[in-house]
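Per reviewer request, we include the raw input and output of the structure prediction for the construct analysed in the revised manuscript.
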Amino acid sequence: MQWTLVIPLKPLTRAKSRLSDTAGDGVRPGLALAFAVDTVAAALACPAVADVAVVTDDAEAGRELAALGARIVADEPRAGLNAALAHGAAVVRASRPRSPVAALNADLPALRPMELARVLEAAAQFPRAFLADSAAIGTTLLAASPGHLLLPAFGTDSRAHHRASGAVELCLQAVESVRRDVDTGHDLRAALALGVGPRTAAAAARLPVPGQ
């Protein structure tokens, strides 16, 4: 089974506000774009992924991610993360109704294609499934097999919300790169320790990250 991934990306000027302890206002947009570039590049290199649709209204990000091979979908609802994901999934399935679809965070700069493939292979066994983040509070991936709606519930305590919605939690070992999203300076240090993609590595090298 090959999946279409739907990746949401808010306008870069509003992205990653919780990284203020590590990156200033003038730096965070570029860092958020670096995370997205490395995430999309790794996703497109995954053998279980047919294509990637990025839901964004950011023109700069759209140009760069389209150049990688992603399909850019305008965030027509403009009503937050979950509305953007539902819209992206609907756009994908308008042309491919039987496509398996998975929502993936845009801030997974350490993402490894084969670890993502393992997660998607496991997700294919269930109508809907999700992977919790490294903190075991949020969600980094939510999958819906053919014939099932995505029903995203990202945000505060999304792990609990996705479990309550009937999605099966995937309990897998050795897929840390798919769990390791980056919201804070601590998260960034953990991702760097795992090994990030080239765009994030270059951006992080210009930051005063303690302990690196």
